[in-house]
Structure formats: structure tokens, C-alpha cells
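Worked example 4.2. Below are the chains of a multi-component assembly; read each line carefully before continuing.
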Amino acid sequence: MSEIGRPPPRTWRPPIDLVICWIALLLLLGLTVVLSYQPLASLNFAVAMTIAAIKAGLVAAIFMELRHRSGVVRAFAAAGFFWLAILLWLGLMDFLTRT
Amino acid sequence: MTGKNYVTEDYRLSSWFTTTDHKRIAILYFAALIFFFFVGGAAATIMRIELATPASDVVNADTYNRLFTMHGIIMVWFFLIPSIPNTLGNFIVPLMIGARDLAFPRLNLASWYLFMLGGSITLYAIFMGGIDTGWTLYTPFSTLYSNSYVSVAVAGIFVAGFSSILTGLNFIVTIHKLRAPGLTWYRLPLFIWSLYATSVILVLATPVLAITLVLLAAERLFGVGIFDPRIGGDPLLFQHLFWFYSHPAVYIMILPGMGVVNELISCYARKKIFGYRFVAWASLAIAGAGFLVWGHHMFVSGQSLTASLVFSFMSFVVAVPSAIKVFNWTATLRKGTLRFDAPMLYALGFVGLFTIGGLTGLFLACLAFDVYATDTYFVVAHFHYIMVGGMVTAYFGGLHYWWPKITGRMYPEYWARAAAILIFFGFNLTFFPQFILGVEGMPRRYHVYPAEFQVWNVLSSGGASILAAAYLLPMFYLGFSLFFGARAPANPWGATGLEWRTSSPPPRLNFEQQPVVTEEPYDYAHAPEPQRV
Amino acid sequence: MTMPTRRSRNVSDRSDIAEHLATVPQRDEVLELGMWTFLSTEVLLFGGLILSYFVYRHADPQAFLAAGRETKIVIGTLNTALLLTSSFCVAAALRAAEHEQRRTTRALLGLAIVLGLTFLGLKSFEYIEEYREHLVPGVNFARAGENAHGIELFFIFYFVATLLHAVHVLCGIGVLAVFAALATATIARSRYVAGLRTAALYWHFVDLVWIFLFALIYLPGRSS
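Applying the procedure described above to all three chains together yields the following C-alpha cells:
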């Protein structure tokens, strides 16, 4: 949680892992926009959702520090999305199976 | 009361409205809930008087619509859902786990204020004439055609929903992080497991209700027709969103009651609950599986056959953990040292009435039978057996069981047993005829009916008057006991559980010294004897 | 509140943790679990809207693609970049706070707030444009042709979801402003850091929601 205090450096440097994550997010943003203009038919949606999921995963793991957290915290973080999956899956089932 | 306890430590009225003490907040909720129980009960009284005759002689159709809507909204959102969690849960959970308070005491007070705000807004809607959509608020009637205070009522429910969410959040974090040293998960009383499962549902289901109500109000107030068939909207989308919350909501209502029954049966049989781990995990299974069955409210609404089949199958599955609990409670009674004090009478009543309610739920889970019985009095009887015969019964049982701990007084035992028996009798006379009415074809939400249904309706209304009197009895003798009851020792029932290791009533911070747990739960072999007070 | 006359042995008397908690790690864990629980409720709050989106997208896919083309991808992409950068600023501010770099913390939080306000400003501009183009359901929506109904349903989702998100951004800005103001106050460091970490989780979550909303709103239909 709180790190052992080090003597403060004279000029503040942004932590390199956060910078890399930020740049990766911006690159993925550019990628998803560019790919959305490519004629991939039904794949467009899957590609957009996949890239969004990767970006979300980076925000959750790096910015929200889930990579450093225990199983209980990760389970709490995942629970909402798991239940959303239930809502979407069972909710859409009706509409997808109507004749 | 001798010595300083949570009641006597500050006598100013303002200290009650600014308290962060979970025990005082429980009392604040309790007072509010008595009021709402009376409001919802008043609606039911007028309805049953009207239904004693086939013709419309007390109210007209429009008023009757508003009455059953008000009854449903008040009883579901402003009585049943907050009942055990916010009164007994708030009071007992920190004591039972050896903590000084919930994880977020100020959030707890905020929950109460949100509840009161939501309740006030809804009461305003009722006072201005009420709404006539049924508590289920189906579109497009509620969005396009109903000429009543739908938006106001919906706003009140929305605000109360956030009270629920914050309560569930508080309990989850408390149970994870504030347990006493040595209190592992498998040493927890089953009341805690049940409230944990309840809190999971509160936290994950209620937000969907919130957004659904926002969409309903948006369509009604701003003409954004998200459920409007004229622009391609689908009224069934509303039903899916509504029931995604409202089915788990019924498990919010019953799981705490089951939790209380665990405590009562183990105490009054002086035996550990049979199959403790099965009961613990069954609570979580009910919470989880309860999210997978909501379409059984929509078998005749027009959803696809595939969806209906899946939901029907899942509805059978969700009955299994409840059945496990009923078997285990029954097995606990065998070779126990039974005492038939009032809380035990309520617990036994719960087991019997919940079994009937649960079995009839299985009938309704069958597609073929449901097509016949849906929107008849069979459904009304089914859910009243669970909600009133089950939940309210368990609430009264828990109230009596923990009354000495909460108030420091003993209630009069013979009056309490008489009330319990009268409630059981009045309840069955009110609601069993409704099963028959449903099978014979009487539809729900109608105030007029063919003459051949009158006999059963008269029995039901007669039972309702007995039930009303029976519910009033505890008000009198419990109120009497506050002033004239014998002073309660710390552990009058000789029960296990950390809440019985502190004084009755407890001090402000619950324990003089932090308790440390080394025994298994329900260790009645080494528990003190019950005291004759 | 009246003080208790006797304290439990194991409970600390420190001023930076509340009287009902025992240790600093317990306080930190309580705050973190509490915030993640709250964020789960937010997932389901937006989740109801997401279900509506997929239901109507399935019902009329062509209309949703046509509607996606009517959204303003330049503003949308710029807004996404702004939020991602503000998340970086908040994460960096938390690291600075852990190292007692109080002025740096305040500067980074201030930058995040500016980016958040810019997001809201661009959103407002976008809404005004959509009003001019008669795309606001319930107000002045006007589209003809076979896709009209589907486009209207898309834009109902668009306005409800982005307005709800904007409200969350506004609340987040308020919370960040409080922590920016408190950055140089004489408050116990561990307490400030614990609070900021909790607030940061909320801000990152708001960013996370937008990542998905962006993909659902601005990207459909671009390839045709």
C-alpha cells in the first residue's frame, strides 16, 4: 500500500510505468479509430470491443493498481462485470431467439 | 437501565438524528418501518373489506387500482426490503462479529436519511392521489397512458434504492474486514452468511432498478420513447430490466428471514444447525441463482419460447438450496432439547409456511401450469405465503429473540406465544382460500368477481381481520415491556454468539474488551443455561 | 459525540483512523473494498443502458450503423484522449502524494481537473451541434426514412448514457478539487493518501466507462 518513504528527488519525474501505460492507451485509441474505418463487416464490432477491453484492462491493472492487489480485491472488481455479463446474456437471449 | 448504555449515554433528541451508532440507527429504521407497515396494511384492509362482496360497494375500479399499487410499493420497498437488514441487521451484525460499529457509520446514517426522503416523496405521491399502474409499473401504461403521479412515486423509489445499495455495501465491507480476531468465515453465525448473501443482491440488483426508473421517468416526462412501440421500442425491455432487479429482490426479502430462523432454531433446540456449511453455501447459492430466473414473471408476456424454457429450468434449480435449508432445519430439531418459546413458534411457523410458499412457487415454475395460474390469486397466495408467512413471521421471531438485547427488557412470554399462534391461524385463514380462488380462476387486481367466489373471499377477509388484530397484539405487550418488563440479563436464552457476551442493552461501543473467538459456532454443548427471568 | 469511558485494549487511539477501526491497514482495506463495491454498482447502473443498446442494435443493425455515422468522431476521440490523460495525471498524483511531493500532487490533480472540465466543455459543444442537427429525441428529433426509428432509439441511448456519464465526471471533478485543495494541508499523510487512492479509483472508473461508451457510440458505421 503506502511505500517506504524515499528522500524526495529534486525534480519530480513521472513514474515510467504510468507513462508507458498512458502512451499505450493513446496508441490503442488511435488504432481502434483507424480500424473502425476499415471494411471488416461484422468483425468491426468485435475488434472495437476487444480493443476497448484491452484499454479497460490496462486502466484497471496499472492505474487502478489491481496488478498489486490480492484475490479478494480482484474478485470484487470482477464481480460487477460478471453480473453485467449475466444481465446481457440472459437479457438478450429472449430477443435473439424470437421467431 | 443501570449504567451507561447506547440509549442512556445521551438523552437529547438531536443526538438521535445525528448519531452514527448502528444501534440507534436500527431503532430509527424500526420506528419508520412500523409507520410504513401501517400505511401498507391500511391499504390492504380497505381492499379486503371491498373484496368481502362480489360487487363494487366500497371503492370503484380506479381507487382499487391505486390501493393495490400503494400496498405493493409500500410493502415491498418501504417495509419488506429494509425490514430485517436495516433493523435487526444494523443492530446485531456488528455485535455478532465482535466489532464496534459497521465499516462506514456515517454512510449508515445517510442511508436512513435517504430512506426517509424516498419514503416522503412516495407518500406525497400517495397523498396526492396515488398511482394506478400496479407496483410492477409496466409500460406503456405507466409511461404513456396512466393519469397519476407516476414520476413522483418513481422518484421516491429511486431515492430509497440508494439507501438499499449503501446498506448492502456497508454490510459486505463490514463482514469482510471487521470480524473479531479468531472469527473465521466458518465460525460465523449463519445470520451473517445470510445477510452477506442479501447484501450481494442489494448491491448488484438495485442499480438496474435505478436506471430502469430513470428511463421510465424520462419517457414519461420528456417523451423519449425508449419503451414506445411507435418508434420501435419494446415494452418487454422494461419488463426484463424491471424483473432483473425485482426477482432477486424477493431473495433480498427472504434471505434475512432464513438467517434469523437459523439463530432461533439452534437456540431453542440447543443444537448446532445440521449441515452448517451446506446452509452457509446455500445462502450464497440462492443469491447467485436468484439472478438467473427473472423471466418466470414473463412467461405470458411475449418473450421467446427458448427464454421461457431456460428460465423455467433455472427456477427449478433455484429451489434446491432453499430445500436444503428446510431439510437441515428439520434435521436440527431431531434429538434437540426443544423449548417452545415465542421465537421458536415463529421459527417453526416460518418453516411450514415457507415450505408451502416455496412448493407453490415450483408449481408456477412449470410453464404449463403458469399459463393457467398467472395473474390469478394463486400467485397472490404464493408470494404472501413467502413474504408474510415466511418473512414477517421470521421478523417477529427475531424481534422477540433479540428484544432483551436491544431494549434490556424481557417481553411477557405467554402473551407472545398467544400472539404467535393467533398470527399463524389468522394468516392461514386469510391466504389459504386464495390458493383455491386462484385455481378456480379468480384474477388478481380485480375488485369485483362472480358470485361463486364469495365464500372463499369472505373467509379470506375474515382471516385478515384476525391477522390485523394479531399483529396489533405485539405492539401492546412489547410497548408495555419497555416500561414494566423485567430487566434482562446479558444472556437470558443461554445462547451462543458474541452479541450475548455483552450487557443488555449494550454500551455505545458494544464491548468493554475486544472479544476473541476460539470456539466453533453454535457450541451449545458448552453454552450457559437459559435463565428464568 | 460523547467519548466512551473505556476503550478496548486492541483499538488504537490515533487521530488518523476512526474510533471503530483498529489499524491503518484495516482502514485502507475498508476504504478500498468499499470503493470497489460501489464501482460494481456503477457497472450495473450503466449496464441497464448497455442492455438497451444491444437489444435495439440487434433489432435494427442498419439503423445503428447509420446513427453511428451521425456522431462526431473528432470530438469523441479528442474527449477520450483527454480522459485517458487525466487518468494518467491522477495516477501520477497518487504516486507523488505517496512520496510527500505535495505541490506536485496539487499540480497534477489541477491538470486532471482542467482536462475534465475541457471534456465537459467539448461535450456541451457537441450537444449544441446535435441540437442544431435535429438529433435530440423528445426535443426536436427529425429524421425520415426507414432508419429513422432506429436512429432515434440510438440517440436516446446516446443522450441518457453520456449525460449520466457527464454527471459522474462532474462529481469526480468536485472530489479531485477537494483533494487538490487539501494537498498542502497539515493532514496525516497516510490518511490523505488513503483518501486520494479511493478517489482515484472512482476517477479511473469514470474513464473506463467512457472507453466502452466511445466504442459503442462513435465507432459503428464508419467503414461504410
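Take a moment to check your reading of the output against the notes. Chain A has two domains: 13-68, 71-99. Chain A has three helices and no strands.
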